[in-house]
Structures are given as structure tokens and as C-alpha cells.
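Input protein
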Amino acid sequence: MRRYQHGRTTPSATRSRPGAIGRRHPRTGTEPATARSAVRLRLLLSAVFLPLFAAATAGFAVWAAREGPGDSPGSGPLTTHAAVCGLLALTAALDLVVVSGRSRRARGGAR
């Protein structure tokens, strides 16, 4: 399959690794063809921040539930903080799943 790009056709890029959807643009930089992210660092950061953000979500939610009328900072900002921490915890959990799946496939484990 060929693409039309800026007045010329270029061959479509092939997959560089299993599970990749192909490149949108041909490689033009100086990075290595086998460049990878720091998988161990991503795994470590996700493992550290998942429980931290989960605890912060629970803490902000409990604090917001115990707020009375006229209290400061109020339940609105606390609920917002709980929602943001929950979103960050979800992001860390998804990253853990993705990184562990990729490392399992790279080792030749379960497919």
C-alpha cells in the first residue's frame, strides 16, 4: 500500500515490533531503530504511584464527605481533588497492565 504525501508517493512503513500499528511517518531522526522506553522505570513509577494516588483518592473522598456547611476548603474542591487522584490512579494501573503485558510478550511468555 502506498501513501500520497506532499506530491509524492512513499511506501507505507512496516511494523517495527509485534503489536505496533505501523508508523505514521518514515523515520527521519537519529534515534536507534530499536529505541524503547525505560520499561523498568515505568513499572517502578506505576507501582509506587498507584497506591499513593489510590490512598489520596480515598482520603479526599472521606474528607469531602465529612465537610459541613461553611467549612473550608469545602466539599467541591475536595471532590475535584479526589476525582483527579482517581484518574491518576487509573492511569497508573493501566500503565502497569500495559508494561507488564509488553514485558511478558518480550520474554516469550503468555500471548
Notes: The chain is about 55% helix and 5% strand. The longest strand covers residues 2-5. Residues 24 and 94 are 24 Å apart (CA to CA). The beta strands are 2-5, 8-11.
